[in-house]
Specification:
By secondary structure, this protein is mainly β. Helix content is about 10%, strand content about 45%. The strands form 6 sheets. Strands 16, 17, 18, 19, 21, 24 and 25 form a 7-stranded antiparallel sheet that branches. Strands 10, 11, 12, 14 and 15 form a 5-stranded antiparallel sheet that branches. The chain has a 5-stranded mixed sheet with strand order 20-27-26-22-23, with no helix packed on it. The longest helix has 11 residues.
Length: about 425
């Protein structure tokens, strides 16, 4: 997070500072993020993001002209030098990139240049800002490099798929820990255990695609000995393909290490514009996200928080949550509203199970370019055993439908 954010709305009249050449123009919506200090990068760092498409999608600005809505409009949005006749807008645009200070000053004579405004210095700074964070736990990275395997510390991992764009996916990877396996130390009136978590995603040829590490702190009441589950999640952006996830966990107090490997298959986009459902995520808990939480935060999907179940097993009497997304929904051309129908069915041994839901379509909510549904079921009426859940969505306007079927198990509460 920056130390401060300066907001500017779409169509706002902007008085350029002297370092940008002065004058008045109209801008796209943009934000200026300011950092007093960033380790390894410098002091007084300013970063601009501009929404050129007027869709709420902000991108990193290449230079100070990116936010100018009149940049390519002759006679409007002039700098002071252009207004006074000492320069032309064509010269300013023509020397925008790949030009030395003398050429750029010729295109904007009244602009005050500083070293940090120099094009290549700005690109260098932005490259450093977007660099991957350095791995702190070199010992865990080394375990993966030499392909060592440990089972001193058992844990589970599951991954899910959420489509972000037509080509890219966010893969939330969730770690499940049993707190009784860790070494806790006193800390005031509580006890804490500290875990070092390292994860790496590789292609089938062992080319590293994504790597990260994190420190996870678990807290419990002093003297509490019963087993208690803890979860940790990391969202990994991936393009279509086949990958291998290698996960390593180390108990820093006890010294135990656990490793685990999982395959990840990110499907190729179908290219179809017909209605489509995402894979359904079964969860231990689904709840509204807090203000300020976004899909880049752990467990946040659309506008809800989803805590996935480790193995789709649920104790009787404990809530069963589900979450899915709906893509390529058609809107009525007059009302601009969709017309969706949702079916949710449970089966045990081929027999349907009555559900208390009414007006199921009310579970569907719009989020950006898609719809989503996230809710909870009461499992108390469900006898222990293996169940099937069928979720089907129909787009009445387009006459298209899609469905997902998955299995889960109800066990007696311990």
């Amino acid at each position: 997070p920056p130390d401060s954010i300066e907001h500017h709305d779409q169509g706002e009249q902007y008085y350029r500072p002297g370092r940008d050449g002065g004058g008045v123009t109209t801008t796209f919506a943009w934000q200026l993020w300011y950092y007093r200090h960033l380790e390894g990068i410098g002091d007084g760092i300013e970063v601009e993001f501009v929404d050129k498409t007027m869709s709420g999608h902000y991108v990193l600005a290449r230079d100070e002209m990116d936010k100018d809505a009149f940049l390519w409009v002759p006679g409007l949005g002039l700098t002071e030098a252009e207004r006074l006749g000492g320069a032309t807008k064509a010269e300013r645009i023509g020397t925008r990139t790949m030009a030395n200070f003398a050429s750029r000053r010729g295109g904007n004579p009244l602009r005050t240049f500083s070293q940090k405004d120099e094009l290549f210095e700005r690109l260098r700074r932005y490259t450093m800002l977007q660099a991957a964070p350095e791995i702190k736990f070199k010992d865990l990275e080394g375990i993966v490099d030499v392909q060592l395997y440990y089972n001193q510390l058992p844990f589970q991992v599951r991954h899910d798929l959420i489509q972000i764009t037509s080509q890219d996916y966010l893969v939330p990877v969730t770690w499940f820990f049993d707190s009784s396996e860790f070494t806790f130390r006193p800390s005031g009136e509580s006890e804490i255990a500290t875990l070092n978590v390292y994860g790496r995603v590789e292609t089938m040829t062992r080319r590293k695609v994504y790597a990260f590490d994190d420190e996870v702190v678990l807290t419990r009441r002093a003297g509490q000995q019963q087993a208690h589950g803890s979860v940790y999640q990391r969202g990994i952006p991936l393009a279509p393909g086949r990958y291998k996830l290698v996960a390593v966990v180390k108990d820093t107090y006890g010294g135990k290490i656990g490793t685990l490997e999982r395959g990840i298959h990110v499907p190729e986009p179908s290219g179809s514009t017909e209605l489509r459902l995402s894979p359904v995520i079964l969860a231990d808990r689904v709840q509204p996200a807090s203000v300020g939480e976004f899909i880049s935060d752990p467990f946040v999907f659309a506008s809800v928080k989803v805590y996935p179940a480790a193995d789709n097993r649920f104790q009787r009497g404990q809530p069963l949550g589900f979450y899915f997304e709906v893509y390529n929904v058609t809107a009525d051309q007059q009302t601009l509203e969709p017309d969706l129908d949702l079916q949710l069915e449970l089966f045990k041994d081929g027999n349907p199970i009555p559900l208390p839901f009414r007006d199921l379509h009310r579970l569907l909510h719009r989020y950006s370019d898609r719809f989503f549904a996230g809710s909870m079921l009461n499992t108390q009426p469900l006898e222990p055993g293996l169940y099937q859940m069928r979720i089907a969505v129909t787009d009445r306007i387009a006459g298209a439908s899609d469905e997902q079927v998955l299995k889960f198990r109800i066990v007696e509460s311990s």
